[in-house]
Amino acid sequence: MTQIELRGIEKFFGAVQVIHNLNLAIADNEFIVLLGQSGCGKTTTLRAIAGLETIDQGDILIDGKAVQHLKAADRDIAMVFQSFSLYPHMTVFENIAFPLRATRMSGGEVDKAVREVARVLRITDLLDRKPSALSGGDMQRVAIGRALVRRPKAMLMDEPIGALDAKLREEMRAEIKRLHVKQGSTTIYVTHDQIEAMSLADRIVIMHEGFIQQVGTPDEVYSHPANLFVAQFVGSPVMNIAEANVADEAGAASVMVGGAPKGFEFPRALLSKLNGHSNGGLTLGIRPEGVLVRHDAAPGYMPVEAQIIEPLGSFDIVDLKVGSSMLRARTKAGYVSGPGEKVHARIDPEQAHFFDTASGKSLGVRL
Amino acid sequence: MAAVRTSSEIALNRVAIAAVLIATLVFLAPIYWIASTAFKPKELAVSVPPTVLFQPEVTPFVRLFTKRVQMQKTVDPQVYEAAPWWEKRIYDGGERVLKVGKDVQLSQYPDRFMNSLIVAVISTVLAVGMGTFTAYGFSRFKIAGEADLLFFILSTRMLPPVVVAIPMFLMYRAVGLNDSHIGLIILYVAFNLSFSVWLMKGFMDEIPKEYEEAALVDGYTRMQAFFKIVLPEAATGIAATAVFCFITAWNEYAFALIMTNRRAQTAPPFIPSQIGSGLPDWTTIAAGTFLFLLPVAIFTFLLRNHLLRGVTFGAIRK
Questions:
Q1: A83 contacts in B (CB within 8 Å)?
Q2: Cα separations in angstroms, A286 against A44, A238, A312, A349
Q3: Are A8 and A100 in the same domain?
């Protein structure tokens, strides 16, 4: 049972504020991912929870107890570093046993605990090796083992698989998920990789420039991004963003992008939900899969010209010229034969997002 | 690296090997000269042309360790016959070994050698120890004026030590530190410390701070993390620093000559003082020098793996 709560955390590096009034409550057994670009404050937040970084303001509560003044050693938290930080002069066994040696555990108990963790992580064969004789994946397993062995209140992971190659990363991602499901512990995981975040997290915390942008389940941040930053940061290929104007046209709403004379057809209900943003200051966001493309004309579809086609194996990304702007659409592989081809496109209103251009905030329009 | 080596690569490799061999010979030549002279009969030591092939003998070492006087007349044959082999060698050279009763009087060489050992070992341990802690502090913590402090530490080496020798001697005499082990140790530590700090700082900077952070999170204090993680990781650097500090302290001549004359005198100023009156006894001096070289050679040999291993760390990904 471990709940972690961050209340009003502020952190400065010199004159630079790297964390702004950060509030976050993490439930027992929850897998939280802090997601953001480098320099967004996610790692600093994690290190502050671990006790490796002091905070200038606010409280860090573990099970309701303020710990911000406690040393790292006294917080009963384990951390996995991106660099793995295995001690080179110790064997794998000694590395995993190291946290237990700090306690008054007897040799027999240590041996038992290490072997149990090694079994779970499938590294029993490697116990006598030195870290330098391990592969990247195994190093990471050992690093996780060292964190797990103490049965800490919470696990912190700082880009634990960021240093691995793509294939191994995928494998280890699944492994971390498996471990979390099996062992269950409150986990805070830092990454800049949105796929890792989506696949692992119970809830994702998206950070940017020291501010939390959005906290939500993977589905929430993907389907209902709180602002333009989240909209563009989460999801691949990236969401289309375009300045838009909305007009009332004969029983329907017409959303015009890129100064195109004709707009995309939306339900009329849109008009009442824009809070006065219909004439300027409105940004439309639409993921490529929300841009529907077909060869022949159909009601609601607009003729457009394909410009660039990126084949990505199972699907293509097609750049469509709409007025002066470009919309990227996701189509079946080979559906659009080549640049210059005239096709018809529409925007799926249910997948469209509307943002206030100035603040970037989502208008929360759901159609 | 190419799997198949071209002929030009092979040729280059041979040239490199030849160059290394020549360099090694050049560096070893004085060592060879000292070693060979130490085993030469006295009269061959300064022969022209130099003698390369000779019957080696240990008489120079016997002379090195004993107190002797010239004999005015030849030795009594009965006494000669009763003498042990090494004493006969002394008689052969027209000298006799000084004795008190039946006890052979040893020369001062073993004492001076011991002084060198005491001063060099203790000053090395202190300089490396203090240097390691200081370097760790500089490497890991934000210190106001860090660059200035480091420069200041280095600046203590910018003056030739001999320049301060006379004032130091006067001060030492005033406080009674002259001709004492502790006096020399203080000097050598002061002299080696800047070197030790700078060298160890480089090694400390190479040790990723994540190691300690991992240990801190794993339930250890910073002090424990230092001893359990940083120190073992810094072993290579400590060994290298220790070798250099030891060599400097072991070979130091100027301060030892000025600051010590009897009780605490080290071997370097003592050995040449044995040239003595009359003809210089080069073989005895060479024997003293030869033995004096051994501790450094052994120390360096024992630590060679650390010196060669460099500062590569296998288990961290940067």
A1: 208, 210, 316-318
A2: 32, 9, 19, 9
A3: yes
Instruction: Give which of B141, B216, B218 to mutate to test A binding, by max A Cβ within 10 Å.
Output: B218
Q: What is the pLDDT confidence band of residue B315, given thresholds at 50, 70 and 90? A: very low
Closest CB from B217, B232, B317 relative to A84: B317
Of the residues A85, A89, A91, A114, the best mutation for testing chain B's interface (the one with the most B CB atoms within 10 Å of its CB) is A85
- The predicted-structure confidence for A35-90, as pLDDT tens digits, reads as follows 999 989 999 999 999 999 999 999 999 999 999 999 999 999 999 998 888 999 99
CA distance linking residue B198 with residue A140, whole number of Å:
34
- Is residue A79 within 8 angstroms of chain B, CB to CB? yes
On whether any CB of chain B is under 8 Å from the CB of A71, the answer is yes
Residues A88 and A142 in one domain: yes
Please tell me the predicted confidence (pLDDT) of residue B276.
64
Cβ-Cβ contacts under 8 Å for B34 (sequence gap 6 or more): B286, B289, B290, B293
Considering the domain architecture, whether residues A221 and A294 belong to the same structural domain is answered as no
Same domain, A206 and A302: no
Are residues A253 and A179 part of one domain? no
A284 touches B at CB < 8 Å? no
| Among candidates A98, A131, A163 on the partner chain, residue whose Cβ is nearest the Cβ of B218 | A98
| Same-domain status, A290 and A141 | no
Average of pLDDT values for A6-32?
A: 94
Taking domain B109-309, whether its CATH number is 3.30.70.660 is answered by no
Using the predicted structure, report yes or no on whether residue A127 has a pLDDT greater than 90.
yes
**Confidence tier at B3 by pLDDT (50, 70, 90):** low
Q: A245, A325 in Cβ contact below 8 A?
A: no
pLDDT digits (tens, 9 = 90+) for A66-81: 999 999 999 999 999 9
Q: Which residues of A touch B318 (CB under 8 A)?
A: 83
C-alpha distance from A81 to closest chain B C-alpha (Å): 8
Give domain status of residue A166, yes or no: yes
Q: What is the rounded average pLDDT for all residues in chain B?
A: 88
Which of B213, B217, B232 minimises the CB distance to A78?
B217
Same domain? A270 vs A177: no
Is the model's pLDDT at B311 over the cut of 60? no
Alpha carbon of A125 to those of A92, A121, A129: distances in Å? 10, 11, 9
Residue A165 lies in a domain: yes
Of A72, A79, A139, the CB nearest to B315: A139
Q: How confident is the model at residue B90 (pLDDT cuts 50, 70, 90)?
A: confident
Per-domain residue ranges of chain B: 7-38, 67-104, 109-309
Domain of residue A286, residue span = 240-356
- C-alpha distance from A76 to closest chain B C-alpha (Å): 7
Q: What is the pLDDT of residues B164-188, one digit of tens each?
A: 888 999 999 999 999 999 999 999 9
Cβ of B316 and A83 within 8 Å? yes
CA-nearest residue to B232 within chain A is A89
Residue A366 lies in a domain: no
Asked if B310 is an interface residue toward chain A (Cβ–Cβ < 8 A), one would say no
**Given a cut of 80, is residue B213 above it in pLDDT?**
yes
CA angle in degrees (0–180, nearest 5) for B33-B39-B40: 80
pLDDT greater than 90 at residue A275 = no
Does the CB of B314 have a partner CB in chain A at under 8 Å? yes
Query: Cβ(A285)–Cβ(A353) under 8 Å?
Result: yes
Number of domains in chain A: 2
CB of A367 within 8 A of CB of A349?
yes
Q: Where are the beta strands (DSSP E) in chain A?
A: 4-13, 16-26, 31-35, 57-62, 65-66, 77-80, 154-158, 186-191, 203-208, 211-216, 240-249, 252-257, 264-266, 282-286, 291-294, 302-311, 315-322, 325-332, 342-347, 352-356
The answer to whether residues A253 and A203 belong to one domain is no
**Minimal C-alpha gap between A270 and chain B (Å):** 51
